[in-house]
Structures are given as structure tokens and as C-alpha cells.
Design a protein that fits this description.
Rossmann fold, alpha/beta, 18 strands, six-stranded parallel sheet, 3 domains
Length: 523
């Protein structure tokens, strides 16, 4: 058995059965091994940023890692932005990067680079396999690092001759690695008791959640905890996955703009962190604070991403006497069908009226998606995946991964026009895999969020040349022919009625499709 086959067998033995890939010469033995190892599903991407973003989306929906296969340092570099987002989401990702053969290293070939240095920017664990016999064990250690807790990007660098040589030894799952995240550091008793005292004090408190606390039984438990103590329930601006909709506890996301976040937090005396990071401004602005915690507010870091969150929540609930089932649940309600001129608001209203039960929304709508959370709050239960690391170009690849992870669910990619262009190759993978993904392109012909930031950072009064750098016209981009050329059904809507008809048709039709909504900018 060569090294490549031992690697794939180790991955599949530990539950990793999907690899999003954009391979090159050094990875050909891994590719060839797919025919001998049917337990691994290879998903081809035309660009490495699609492969890495898809692995992130897969992990968020499946709750376990996929692998990627990337070609040398330049291939890893091409995928780095979405690995950054995966790192911020604490998504478990097994990143396999091919390297030149050990025997080829002394010659400094054209594609040779310091892969480990690039990988360390986004990976909690980086290892280069130096012998074929060690591939299985190194893969096991990489898997353990990816699973966490917390979930993480873990990178295994695989030289070509290590991959092609005989002598590989796969490692099975008898050691327990690959069964999913669990355990973590036990909560600090002093921090728990201080948080409990704050919740019982009668002072204004907020339970601030992120990560694992935003879904499943943990979301129910933290909502009950907040309601039982009179605390407010808030979550991170961009959670990795938030379960929402009818029957689920309503959770308010903290606003993106620092000014709005500060207004929302003003007067809170205690902030209880449950897998959430203490809020900070996304950028520095002249004359404005970076730390958004109000003066006089005490932060209680009860449990972070590497901690035993279920244990911490249970312990805190016991200390304050929380009542199971105390939290209200979102009532089922949909907005009325939208009418009038097509706009960001009517697009989001229509989405709320039509969103199917069990949908997964990959949200990279940016400024034009502002109304979507409110319009879908009472829609049937669904999951909302956010832009965790702020590196745009995530929405379409994450939608690919989410759809591969669970083919029974409809995925909606709510996508700004500028962001879509970063990784539009994802549409080809959707078509190739026959994925049930509906992309809504919010086309306002502008990097609208950057127009807003240009004003907010105080960079003087922008003139026509500055504004021109944020304009996506001249020429206008034809999203419909682009989508059709990549194998998708696509339609353009210029009225609200057209959009409702096309979105309804797309959501009811198997396979991937694109609905382009031509709207004015909000800014």
C-alpha cells in the first residue's frame, strides 16, 4: 500500500469521507487512489478558494470535518481567505497540501515554497510527513487537532514521494479520534460563581453566545438560562451557524456597526460569555474605541471555544436555578408577499415568504442583505451561516459544502454581487454535483459596504476617482450568462413580481439555479 492509500484509509476510518480538491502533479497519487478507496468522495473545484470554503460549509452543517487537497504553496495561498473564515468559525478542516518529493527539494524548482509558514497563518496544527510508514499516524494526529475542541484547520503537508512509495500503514479509529468534538477544559469554579452571582444580582446582564451555543440543545439551554434570570440574550454578529425560525429561541445578533453595537450594549453591567468572544469593533476608526464593552461592565468568560461548554452551561443553570423550557419560542409567521419596485427590502421580504423548512442560508448579502434576518425570523426552522472571518468570497463555496453535507436540504446562497465574483467558480461545482442550491444575487452594481466604510473612516470627502474604485459598472456584469455558462439555470428579475416567480420556481426545482435581483444600492 502506498502512502496516498494509507492516508485515505485513515481518513475514512475516522469518518472523513469527503475531499474538496484542486489537485496538481504532486497530488496525483492521492487522486489515483480514489478509484481503489470508494469510501472517499472527491469533489472537484475550479479554484482552491472554493475547495477551502466548501470544507468550511461542510463542517458547519455536518458537524465533522471534510478534507481538502491543494497543490503546493501557491494552491494553499489561493485558498487562504476561506481557511481564515474557517479558522474564525472553529470549523474542523483537514487540509492536505501536496509538496515536492523529498528528493526534489535540493533543486529549488519553480513551485517550491515554504508551505508550513503559509499554513501556520490559518492552522492550529501543521505537520510535514517525512516517511511513507508515518503517513497514517500523522493523519491521525492531524484529525485529532482538527476535531478539537475547539474545531480547527489542521494541515498535513505530503511530499510526492512519500505519497507514491510503498509501505503505508493506515490507522483505524480504535483510539477514539474522529468521533466528533467533545470534552474540553472544565469551567473555572470561581468564574462560574461570579457569573451566577451577577445573574442573581438584579443588575442588567446579557448572556453573549457564539459557536456551539447557537444551535441544538445548547441553544435551548442558554435561552432558558437567560429567561430564568431576566438576562438579555445576544449572539456574535457573525455566528458560524445559528439555528433560527419558528419554534426556536429568538436570538438577537449584535450589530455590525460599532456605533450601533455600543448603543445596544450601553447600560449592561455584566456580560456572560458562552462560546462568544468579548465584542470588539471590526476595524479601527478615528476617535472611536475598539473595545465595545461599556465602561463599568464586567465580562465573565465562563466558557470559550476550547472549554467544556455543555458542562459550563449545566453548572451555571444549576447555580441560578434555571427552568428548562422557560425561554419563549419564535412564533410561526411569514411576511406578506412583497409588491412594488424591486429593492433589497422586497427581495428579503420575498425570501421570508418562500423560504422552505429545513433550509440552510449561506449569508453573504452584505449591505443588501440587511433586511433578511428580520424577514425570515418566523419562517420555518432553518440554519443561518455567516461570514465569520470577514474575508469575502465565502458565500458560494460555503453553500457548496453545506449542500454536500446534507443533500436532503435546500441551500440558499444570499449573495452580494461583488462578493460573488471572488469565487463564482463555485457555480460549476454546484452543477457538476447536482446540488440543490439556489443563489440569490443582490446586484446593486457596487461594493456598497466599502462605500459606507469610505465615509466612516474619515478619509476626506471622496471624489469621483475614489468612488469609481468601488463601482461595479462600466461594464455591467452579466450574471445570468455567467451562470448559464457554468451549467446552471439562471434568470434575471427587475420587478418584485418577477423575483417572486423566479425564486419560487428555483426553490421548487431540483438542482442549482441563480436568480439575479437588480436593485438600487442602499447607500
Amino acid at each position: 500500500m502506498n502512502g496516498a492509500r494509507s492516508l485515505i484509509r485513515t481518513l475514512t476510518a475516522h469518518g472523513v469521507d469527503t475531499c474538496f480538491m484542486n489537485p496538481g502533479t504532486s497530488e496525483m497519487h492521492f487522486v489515483a487512489a480514489l478509484d481503489d478507496e470508494p469510501g472517499m468522495h472527491g469533489v472537484l473545484a475550479l479554484f482552491e478558494g472554493v475547495a477551502t470554503g466548501a470544507a468550511d460549509g461542510y463542517a458547519r452543517v455536518a458537524g465533522r470535518p471534510a478534507s481538502t487537497l491543494l497543490h503546493l504553496g501557491p494552491g494553499l495561498g489561493n485558498g487562504l481567505a476561506n481557511l481564515h473564515n474557517a479558522r474564525r468559525a472553529h470549523s474542523p478542516v483537514v487540509n492536505i497540501v501536496g509538496d515536492h518529493a523529498l528528493s526534489h527539494r535540493p533543486y529549488d524548482a519553480q513551485l517550491q515554497s515554504d508551505i508550513a509558514t503559509v499554513a501556520r497563518n490559518v492552522s492550529r496544527f501543521v505537520r510535514t510527513t517525512e516517511s511513507t510508514e508515518q503517513v497514517g499516524a500523522d493523519a491521525r494526529d492531524t484529525l485529532a487537532a482538527a476535531f478539537g475542541p475547539p474545531g480547527a484547520v489542521a494541515t498535513l503537508i505530503l511530499p510526492a514521494d512519500v505519497s507514491w512509495s510503498e509501505g503505508g500503514v493506515p490507522v483505524d479509529a480504535s483510539g477514539g479520534v474522529g468521533t466528533g468534538p467533545g470534552g474540553g477544559t472544565a469551567p473555572d469554579q470561581d468564574v462560574l460563581e461570579a457569573a451566577a452571582a451577577a445573574l442573581r444580582s438584579g443588575e442588567r446582564c446579557a448572556v453573549f453566545i457564539g459557536g456551539r451555543a447557537c444551535s441544538g440543545p445548547l441553544l435551548d439551554a442558554v435561552a432558558d438560562l437567560a429567561t430564568s434570570t431576566g438576562a438579555e440574550l445576544l449572539c456574535e454578529t457573525f455566528p458560524a451557524k445559528l439555528e433560527r425560525g419558528a419554534g426556536r429561541p429568538p436570538v438577537e445578533r449584535l450589530g455590525y456597526l460599532a456605533e450601533f453595537a455600543m448603543m445596544r450594549l450601553d447600560g449592561i453591567r455584566h456580560l456572560i460569555l458562552l462560546d462568544g468572544k468579548s465584542p470588539v469593533s471590526f476595524f479601527a476608526y478615528p476617535g472611536k474605541p475598539s473595545d465595545l464593552v461599556p465602561t463599568g461592565c464586567t465580562v465573565h468568560p465562563v466558557a470559550g471555544p476550547g472549554d467544556d461548554l455543555p458542562g459550563a452551561v449545566d453548572a451555571l443553570a444549576d447555580l441560578v436555578g434555571a427552568t428548562a423550557g422557560a425561554a419563549p419560542r419564535q412564533q410561526a409567521e411569514r411576511p406578506a408577499p412583497a409588491t412594488g419596485a424591486l429593492s433589497a427590502q422586497t427581495v428579503c421580504q420575498t425570501l421570508g415568504a418562500l423560504l422552505p423548512e429545513g433550509a440552510v442560508v449561506s449569508d453573504e448579502g452584505n449591505t443588501s442583505g440587511l433586511f433578511a434576518p428580520g424577514a425570515t425570523a418566523g419562517a420555518p426552522p432553518h440554519d443561518w451561516l455567516c461570514l465569520t472571518g470577514g474575508a469575502i468570497g465565502q458565500g458560494l463555496p460555503v453553500a457548496v459544502g453545506a449542500a454536500v453535507a446534507d443533500r436532503s436540504r435546500r441551500v440558499v446562497a444570499l449573495e452580494a454581487d461583488g462578493s460573488a465574483l471572488y469565487t463564482i467558480q463555485a457555480w460549476w461545482t454546484m452543477a457538476r454535483e447536482g446540488l440543490d442550491v439556489t443563489t440569490v444575487i443582490l446586484n446593486n452594481h457596487s461594493y456598497a459596504v466599502l462605500n459606507m466604510e469610505l465615509d466612516r473612516v474619515g478619509a476626506a470627502e471622496p471624489g469621483p476617482r475614489a468612488r469609481d474604485m468601488l463601482d461595479l459598472g462600466r461594464p455591467d456584469i452579466g450574471f445570468v450568462p455567467l451562470a448559464q455558462g457554468l451549467g446552471l439555470h439562471a434568470a434575471r428579475a427587475e420587478t418584485t413580481e418577477q423575483f417572486a416567480d423566479e425564486l419560487g420556481r428555483a426553490l421548487a426545482t431540483p438542482g442549482p439555479s441563480v436568480v439575479e435581483a437588480v436593485i438600487p444600492s442602499l447607500l
